[in-house]
Design brief:
By secondary structure, the protein is an all-alpha fold. It contains 15 helices and 2 strands. It has a two-stranded parallel ribbon. It is globular and about 60 Å long. About 35% of the residues are buried.
Length: about 350
């Protein structure tokens, strides 16, 4: 009986389900490659198996974002998020995209808690959004950005506590830049991510942001958030050796490109949503700067990363990847990171 049950030929239902999952992964792959190229990311550098897992994760995050932003009202968005939670938790039949994601989570031992963080972050965007201070801003940024970074890092071959801390830094910085770029669009949705403490120091309130999200009076607040982002970008750059060699220049491009987009927005200048949408002259200049870093000892992994500053993660005690213990990091046995 056991052999018969194990060796039975796949049923028509099994075949149909496999075909559906394969079609889903194929669609995710096409969408990811198209979007990656528009962001000046080279997906062909990623091994095919990992590329498919990353594509599935990207599409899952994209659909979650659409669930929140495109719903007719907050109640329907909340119901839709609850359905995602039920499917991920096995309490409801999983759609093909969720099945593909769960298979990737099991196969790659991805952190399930980060999916919960992401769902919590998305849910916090329902209804009016107000942020009290920098600590709350960083915790929000962790949920909607770092959680994704912690899920995708193992798919790029990035593992270990030292590397995780820099992934936290990079993803926090990217989200802060994204917030700077999207102040006006967020205001239209009744979302103000600029911390109330920073607004109050400039004599402003969330209401002022909603009334005039492009006003010059906001610039000191925006510049302060850009400076906060730069602290995390610097820390991420100082640990770039912890990233496999084939991806290091891409990480440096993200740091340079998105950091500059955030700084442009903070100065009141036009800032597109991605570096690839900037004028050609600026992109060529960035690529020239990137080429000059190609042979830097840090880029080549010849020198050890600088020690990570635990103060950067003080608002995130106990959260995955966060480094809050001054004695936590030990790079005394560093021997370079030369993996292709």
């Amino acid at each position: 009986m056991g052999a018969e049950a194990t060796d039975r030929p796949p049923s028509q239902t099994d075949a149909s389900g496999d075909a559906c999952r394969t079609a889903t992964i194929d669609a995710c792959r096409r969408e990811f490659v198209r979007v990656a190229h528009s962001f000046w990311i080279v997906p062909e550098l990623i091994p095919p198996a990992a590329r498919d897992d990353i594509a599935v994760l990207y599409c899952f995050c994209r659909r979650l974002d659409d669930t929140v932003d495109d719903a007719p009202d907050a109640a329907q968005a909340r119901d839709a998020l609850a359905l995602w939670r039920d499917e991920l938790g096995g309490r409801a039949p999983a759609r093909p995209l969720v099945e593909a994601l769960l298979a990737s989570v099991r196969r790659n031992r991805l952190p399930r808690d980060c999916i919960e963080h992401l769902l919590d972050g998305m849910e916090s965007d329902l209804g009016p959004v107000r942020i009290a201070d920098d600590d709350e801003l960083l915790r929000y940024s962790y949920r909607v950005s770092t959680a994704v970074g912690m899920l995708v890092a193992p798919l790029f071959g990035i593992r270990g506590a030292d590397a995780d801390a820099r992934i936290v830094d990079l993803s926090l910085a990217l989200q802060l830049s994204n917030i700077l770029i999207g102040v006006a669009e967020d205001a239209r949705r009744d979302r103000v991510y600029l911390p109330a403490t920073r607004l109050a120091a400039a004599g402003l309130s969330a209401g002022d942001v909603l009334r005039d999200p492009r006003g010059r009076r906001l610039l000191p607040v925006l510049e302060g958030v850009a400076a906060l982002a730069d602290r995390y970008y610097r820390s991420a750059a100082e640990g770039v050796q912890l990233v496999p060699l084939r991806y290091r220049h891409g990480v440096l491009f993200l740091i340079r490109g998105y950091g500059e987009l955030g700084r442009r927005a903070a100065r009141g200048l036009p800032a597109p949503s991605a570096p690839g949408l900037l004028p050609l002259r600026e992109k060529v200049w960035w690529l020239a700067e990137l080429a000059m870093t190609a042979w830097h000892p840090r880029t080549l992994g010849i020198i050890a990363p600088s020690r990570h500053d635990p103060a950067l993660h003080r608002p995130l005690p106990g959260w995955r990847g966060a480094h809050v213990d001054a004695g936590w990091q030990d790079l005394g046995n560093w021997n370079g990171s030369w993996k292709p």
